[in-house]
Amino acid sequence: MLMGDVTKLVQPSDRVEDLREQAKGSPLLAQALAHVPVSEQKRRVEGFDNLQQVFAAYEPVVVQAGCEMRFRTEDVDGYSEHLEVFGFTPTGRRSKKVTLSLSYFTTAFDELFDENGKIYHANHRPRVRPWTVRKGGVPTSRKELATSLPDFIDGVEELVQRSRRTE
């Protein structure tokens, strides 16, 4: 409306033209046009090139909270790397299951059954979204490490807060 566009108004008015004239030269006009709603903004964390760097940065934080973080690689049906965080059970013991993970998978495949009922992998292809964050058993896949890290860091912060409450 600040630009004088009255096409979407239910009842167009000459006052919109007056508003446009008043807005000319205002620094707020450029700010309003550049505004992107928070719901449409993608959070990013820059500065990390791989999971080893993330491990080096966040492992001390996780250990200080009394949790455990592991880094591992696999080369089965394509190369993959995993950062796994083991939190606490509701009773306060360290969990044996992974509480939070950040993984990188190079290859996607289909799991099929052969004539004997055994599972095998077929149709190997590069993954479009190789980065996966799993919090509470719910996976979220992303194309870049920078867009996956905010969810992972949020999970680490939640674990740290929980460990502080139990102390």
Tell me about this structure.
By secondary structure, the protein is of the alpha+beta class. Helix content is 32%, strand content 28%. The chain is built from 4 helices and 7 strands; from the N terminus they run αααβββββββα. The strands form 2 sheets. It has a 5-stranded antiparallel beta sheet with strand order 1-2-3-6-7, covered by helices on one side. A hairpin with a 5-residue loop joins strand 4 and strand 5. The model has no long low-confidence stretch (mean pLDDT 84).
Notable features of this structure?
167 residues, alpha+beta, five-stranded antiparallel beta sheet, two-stranded antiparallel ribbon
Residues in helices, as a percent range: 25-40%
Percent of sequence in beta strands = 25-35%
Instruction: Give average pLDDT, whole number.
Output: 84
What does the overall shape look like? extended
**Uncertain stretches of 5 or more adjacent residues:** none
Write down the secondary-structure element order.
Answer: HHHEEEEEEEH
Structural class: alpha+beta
Report the C-alpha radius of gyration, rounded: 24 Å
Strand order of the largest sheet: 1-2-3-6-7
Euclidean distance between termini CA atoms: 55 Å
Oligomer: single chain
